[in-house]
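Section 3.1: Structural characterization of target chains.
Under the original work plan, the team committed to producing a structural model for every single-chain target entering the pipeline before any wet-lab resources were allocated. The record below documents one such target. The sequence was received from the expression subgroup and is listed exactly as submitted; it comprises 310 residues.
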Amino acid sequence: MKINQTVLEEFILVGFSVYPHAQTFLFVVFFCLYLPTLTGNLAIMGLTWVDRRLHTPMYLFLSALSFSETCYTLTIIPKMLADLLVKYRSISVIGCGLQMSSFLGLGGTNCFILTLMGYDCFLAICNPLRYPLLMTNMACGKLVVSAWVAGFFISVTETGMIFRGSFCCPNLVKHFFCHMRAIVRLSCLDSKLTEFIVTAISVSGLIGTFLLIILTYVFILSTVLRIPSAEGKQKAFSTCASHLTVVIIHFGFASIVYLKPEASGGDDTLIAIPYTVITPFLSPLIFTLRNKDMKNAFRKVLGKTNSLNK
């Protein structure tokens, strides 16, 4: 039985208020992680835009992922940082719905773009002769648009199911953002059935895209092992090493949240930190630190800046 079936206009985000003495410390930590996250993703997009040598499908996919992750963090982290500095942490029902649909849509888009990047690696290594014909910049753009459409189709479906009815008091959301599980449990309707359906949709999308990526790497590995020279093998592995690392981190942290049994307990607020804060922070670092093309493009931009200053 729900406690009070009144029409709610806002939710109270409990979030990190259960750790009152750590508010300032958490703000500093998250702010210091968010700044390089934002800077790194903007740098990737900017370098890809200004350097014509990076106008290739691989870097166009990377730029699309950076844009998606920038939007992804903007839906969660600024609000979270602001709430760490105030006592009254509220969000309107409409604002909650928009935040949820954006977060789910962008998270799904990230999964689909990572899958497309795996497909790009597969074509480059397994079908190098046909790669220029199959993976043109136009085809890359169409695939990215398809990833956005698919991601937001799923998110709008899930958000519509959760917000189709009214919500019951108390309006306390035991999270630092409008996480679908935390919100659906406040529904006056059959929340158990809705929670099962939306969770099943998210888990299916998560596992489905991950399995597709694993399948592409099975073919990639079988092709690489047939390369006779050690140098050729190393070059092939280095092409996809950054992508595979990000895939493991992204899907690993996401699986902890969506595949965690409800009876296992644990603070959902703390469990959500890795995939909302840490994964976006690590992604641009991994893709740029060992990437010679990105480093060269950065040096080129710095060189032009220094020459203009002189």
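The chain has a mean pLDDT of 87.
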